[in-house]
Design a protein that fits this description.
By secondary structure, the chain is mainly alpha-helical. Helix content is about 75%, strand content about 5%. The chain folds into three domains: about 45 residues; about 60 residues, Type II secretion system (T2SS), domain F (Receptor-associated Protein); about 250 residues, Receptor-associated Protein (Up-down Bundle). It contains 16 helices and three strands. Helix 13 packs antiparallel against helix 14 and helix 14 runs antiparallel to helix 15.
Length: about 400
């Protein structure tokens, strides 16, 4: 998150200057307004970047930090003492450096949320904004507990997804290596043996194709590898552009079988973050601005941005989400009912729980089906190679007999 240098005046007309970390200049103006300051000048500043701003800490470690800080504060331990205790007991080098900088920032007069914002790779935007809302609204301990719970749930979901995909990935990799080894090293040994059949035009077309693939791989393998690396590099460069990321996100949710799973997880993330923020007193427009990025999908982000525009003009949230065509009908209907009954925060979190449970079951089923399918594909490829080699051998044996 970039830093912005500002010059403002308070209610007495006194000039105040400093720096704030925020996603946009508009957000800086909102923060200053919330502090009853009248901005005179706001501009981007690189000079105030925090030491170690790019340090990263695992999500589960951060969840423990949030939970422990909430427990200390709830137990009556002052903020500075709580941060000092967490810093001293931390065995993680990166976390220790981050907490040390946060401690000094808070000591110098910054709020906890502003100090956390200087480390965007350790503290998520949702955590930063919830801590800010909790500090301003007097429910910091509850906000920290909710951030800890949310972070644990997301890390657990991420871990289960990765665990489910490990075996299929290993199976696919091993199968690719085995087939490549057969084609490159094993098949060429039969080329000279089949030369007579080839000259007489009696070599089966499957064997001809297999020998051609093997010969091409041996002679031009380096060129094919170079082309593959070039394509990979080009795709990686495209993914760094806004258009490329949008295309990739669209393909991700449209791909057969796996697409609905990716979409459901993205919708669940959006619902959970939005519901958690609303429950902790964050205004709905600000909550939508944060949660649309938490969805992790550009297509959903665009739909949520349009929904924000509708709410700004006094309309409902459900209508533009339904119009996008990417949100499940059940989710849209429940949001519409929740808006009418003023229970949007609770309904969103409950929906996120339900969607994640159902999608986890779908993911488990998909992986269980994927494993035998990959085994069958691998077995079929090996069988084709074996048959393509055995048929000419049998034919040669019959000729010799």
């Amino acid at each position: 998150m970039p830093d912005y240098a500002f010059v403002a005046r308070d209610a007495t007309g006194q000039k105040i200057s400093g720096t704030l970390s925020a996603a946009t200049e508009r957000e800086v103006l909102g923060i200053l307004s919330g502090r009853s300051l009248f901005p005179v000048e706001v501009k981007a500043s690189k000079a105030a970047a925090a030491p170690g701003a790019n340090l990263r800490v695992r999500g589960l470690v951060m969840a423990t930090v949030y939970s422990q800080l909430a427990a200390l504060l709830r137990g009556g331990v002052p903020m500075m003492k709580s941060l000092a205790v967490l810093r001293e007991q931390s065995s993680n080098k990166n976390l220790k450096a981050i907490l040390d900088e946060v401690y000094h920032r808070v000591e110098d007069g910054s709020t906890l949320g502003d100090a956390m914002a200087r480390f965007p790779r350790a503290f998520s935007e949702m955590a930063i904004n919830m801590v800010r809302a909790g500090g301003e609204g007097g429910f910091l301990e509850d906000a920290l507990d909710r951030v800890a719970s949310f972070t644990e749930q997301q890390e657990d979901l991420k871990g289960r997804t990765i665990s489910a995909m490990v075996y299929p990935i290993l199976l696919g990799s091993a199968g690719t290596i085995v087939v490549a080894g057969l084609i490159v090293f094993f098949v060429p040994k039969f080329a000279a043996m089949f030369q007579q059949l080839r000259e007489r035009g009696e070599l089966p077309w499957a064997t001809e194709m297999l020998l051609w693939v093997s010969d091409t791989s041996r002679r031009w393998g380096w060129l094919l590898a170079l082309i593959a690396v070039t394509i990979g590099f080009w795709v990686n460069m495209q993914l760094k552009t806004a258009k490329g990321r949008r295309t990739a996100d669209l393909l991700r949710i449209k791909v057969p079988f796996a697409g609905p799973i990716f979409l459901s997880f993205a919708v669940a993330r959006f619902c959970r973050v939005l519901g958690t923020l609303l429950h902790n007193g964050v205004p709905i427009l600000k909550a939508l601005e944060i949660s649309r990025d938490a969805a992790g999908n550009k297509i959903l982000t665009e739909a949520i941005a349009k929904a924000s525009e509708n709410i700004s003009s006094g309309q409902s949230l459900a209508s533009p989400l339904a119009a996008s065509g990417h949100f499940p009908k059940m989710v849209v209907e429940m949001i519409a009912v929740a808006e009418e009954s003023n229970t949007l925060d609770k309904v969103l979190v409950d929906m996120a729980d339900d969607i994640e449970k159902r999608t986890s079951r779908q993911l488990d089923l998909f992986v269980r089906l994927l494993e035998p399918i990959m085994l069958m594909i691998l077995a079929a490829v090996v069988l084709v190679v074996v048959i393509a080699l055995l048929v000419p051998v049998i034919k040669m044996g019959q000729t010799m007999g």
